Amino acid sequence: MTPRSAEITPPSASVCIPLFQKRDYIARTIDSVLEQTFTDFELVVLDNASTDGSSEIVDGYDDPRVRVVRHTETVPMIANFNAAVAATRAPLVKVLNADDLVEPEALERQVEVMDAEPDVAVVSSRHHLVDDRDRIVARDRTLRTPDLIGRQDRATVVRRVVRHGGNPLGVPGNMLFRRSAFDQVGGFPTDDDSFVLDVALAVRLTTTGDFYGLPQTLSRFRLASGSESGSDRRHHLRAQRAFVRGLRRDHADVVRCQDTARGLARWPLTWLRHHVLMSAASDPDGRAHRLAARVLAPGGCRDDRHA
């Protein structure tokens, strides 16, 4: 990896974008970061040897906040995410997928929390789900229960994930974490599936400090057309179930029988929502897109607060 440029004084926050073959989205992602109301940040783009023209788009940015790092050969996804964080220089870090977006006030609101709460390791928020055209498919996802809003300890976070059966904590773009905590836990866990790397990291970070949930929606997670095949969907769901089983085993000191029972009872709903989501991504103008807007709306099907 070879850095294109470097500044002398470290910024307060870093946003890093692990980039691979996202020509159609990367400009929108970078623009959303550069429009932040909080200005003391760097944007590190780690290009994982893209060959689709993404690199040329990134090179077109003439902004001192943007720093590009490149792999000469493509590395596995989780290794690329860890390398992206390793390339940052700030004490606070946000990892943003190369096709996702952040709202203008995302860094400002989350840095405020981290400055005020020194024992918090990671702060997260809600997100909208958007399609290829940036149209909102579902609003205000994740952190849908009162016990994930505000400052929460490891036990509360682990129990909620077990009861949810998926990821109630947020996607990478939702989160801002302390680089020291990330380093302490060894980064994104390489022994977990890439489909659960976000929730796996968040749980890991709670072993070093508390979790803080913001009720605001501060990012947009993209459901790109064709992002998952049928086999990928089954793999994703298997990965979720395996991760939750691991939580029950590794955190037996805090997981209660009622948490496990509720998670198992909720699994059909988790499957249904995931199926509707991926169907909407594959058919953005059709019936599945409209169904997703209804089923995934707050209160649609069944609200997370009852899980």
From TrEMBL:
| Keywords assigned | Transferase
SUPFAM superfamilies per record: Nucleotide-diphospho-sugar transferases
| Organism superkingdom | Bacteria
Q: State one Pfam family annotation.
A: Glycos_transf_2
Tell me the ranges covered by the Glycosyltransferase 2-like domain, including all copies: 14-185
Q: Which GO terms describe its molecular function?
A: transferase activity
Q: Which PANTHER family match?
A: GLYCOSYLTRANSFERASE, GLYCOSYLTRANSFERASE 2-LIKE DOMAIN-CONTAINING PROTEIN
Q: What is this protein called?
A: Glycosyl transferase family 2
Q: Which organism is it from?
A: Actinomycetospora succinea
